[in-house]
Every structure is written in C-alpha cells, then in structure tokens.
Amino acid sequence: MSRAERVQESAPAFKALLNYLANTTETPESYGGVSQSVADEKRKGKYAEHMMPIYNGRAIVDQLSLDREGFILVNHETKMKNFYDEAEVRSVYYQETEELVKQTSGAKRVLVFDHTLRSADSATREEKKISGPVRNAHNDYTEWSGPQRVRDLLPNEAEELLKHRFAVVQTWRPINNPVQREPLAIADARSIGASEFIPSARIYPDRRGEVYHSTYNPGHRWYYFPNMQRSEAMVFKTFDSLKDGRARWTAHCAFDDPTCPPDAPPRESIEMRTIAFF
C-alpha cells in the first residue's frame, strides 16, 4: 500500500508545547494499576517541552484515513448514561466500540480488552480512582508488545492468529463536556520515523508491558480536533502487523490549548483498546 502525499496543506492553528523524551540513556518506566501519586513517584524518564505547530484536524476530517494518517474522527452516538459506571461501560460501551472498530477498520473480529478513564481534575481522579491526561508523546504498543498482547489475551489461539494481519486500534472520546482543556494531539503516521521511538517499560502489578516514548523531531506533524463532543470519537492505530507502507502506529499526548477559555471545565475522557483481526 503506497503512502500518498498529504491530502492537504494548511497553516497550523497555533503552536503549543509538547512533551518529548529527552534522555535516552535511562530506560523510561511508567506504572499502571496503581494510584496516580504512586505512579508519578515511581516513573522514570526525563522529558523536555518543544514548541510545535498544531493543525486543526477538522479542516481535513473527511479526507483522513486510518491506514494513511493513522487516525480518523467519526460521529458516534452512544447509549451510555454514566461512563463512571464500570458495569455499564463493559455491558454497553465495549460492544459499541467493537462495532465501531469493525466498521472503521474493516476487521472481521474485534476484541475489546481494556479501557482507561481520565480526568484533568485532581479531585475527580482521587474520588473515582482514575488517571490524568498523559502529557508525554507516546505510542501504546511496540514491535514486541503488540504481538505479546495477543499471546496474553488469547493464549490458545495466539500462534495461529499471529500468522495473519492484526492491529491494535484504540478509540478516544469525551465522556461529559466538550473537551477544551488538555485535548489530545496526534501525529500523522507518515511524519514519524522509527528512530524517534524508544521502548519504555509499562509496569503493572501482575504483568509487564512496553510502549514507545517519542524523542523530538521537528518534522512531526501534529493535529487535534477542537471542541470534541461526547458524540464524537477519535479512532487511531497503535500497532499494525503489516509492513507494507500503511500506518503502523501514531504518537499522541495531551497538551495545553493556548486558545482554551480560562473557565473551561476539566477534560474527562475514555480511551478503549482493541485488537482487530483481519
């Protein structure tokens, strides 16, 4: 599959500071399945902010491709009433996400295996025992951890499944108010070189994973979707087993929108992780 030129050139919406891995002499480590304070205390890795152009993805939303840029934005109504209700998320939103990923990726089978709620409000994080927005440019799976996730989740089928194409496809959406504070920035997959990605340990109480943290490259082309609504979802790839030129992963992170009103409510969002089999 050829990697076509960018569908449209335009002026950036603004410039904003993005957080990149700065020191690659120490293996970065982050922690999941523990409180935010413990995770912050144990985290390893040094990061530095760089001023980067951010483009308005809504200007080209109808031209984006999951296999070219690596991400799309879709209108996606949900029957969810309360995203903080774990049982409702699993009984309603998992199935909705499975269908969404099938429709947008063309996969024949989709396994939803994880979700993460995030809030920019510290009181909400403490009350709900959830995480805050991730400020470091990263991609959730690596050349090793993508296939390993299949082995972890489907041990009896894994070796046969790994003979065929599969992808880790994620979704992200607001769960209450439109997102103005700390929105999600995502980089065009074609602007990312493999040399910028540094494997980083992701450590849980019961297992060890691996993500990529990104070092700085002025050629990265970052997008965001301003004022994302609860009825919208961003769908993006964080691993693809095919190496034929299509998007295999993206870099993404939260950032401070310089146009955000000072009284905007804190961001609240949910991200879903799925494995799509083709």
Order of helices and strands: EEHEEHEHEHHEEEEEEEE
Q: Report strand order across the widest sheet.
A: 1-3-11-8-13
What would you report as the Rg, rounded to the nearest angstrom?
18 Å
What is the approximate shape?
globular
The helix fraction, in percent, is: 10-25%
- Please outline the major beta sheet: 5 strands, mixed
Instruction: Write down the overall mean pLDDT.
Output: 93
The secondary structure category is: alpha+beta
Number of strands: 14
Q: Which residues form runs of ≥5 with pLDDT under 50?
A: 1-7
Q: Into how many domains do the coordinates divide?
A: 1
How far apart, in Å, are the first and last alpha carbons? 16 Å
Tally of contiguous helical segments? 5
Beta-strand proportion: 25-35%
Question: Main traits of this protein?
Answer:
278 residues; 5 helices; five-stranded antiparallel beta sheet; five-stranded mixed beta sheet; alpha+beta; 14 strands; disordered N terminus
Structure description:
The protein has 278 residues and is an alpha+beta fold. It has one domain. The chain has 5 helices and 14 strands. The protein has a 5-stranded mixed sheet, with no helix packed on it. It has a 5-stranded antiparallel sheet with strand order 4-12-7-14-5. The longest helix is centred in the middle third of the chain and has 20 residues. The radius of gyration is 18 Å and the shape is globular.
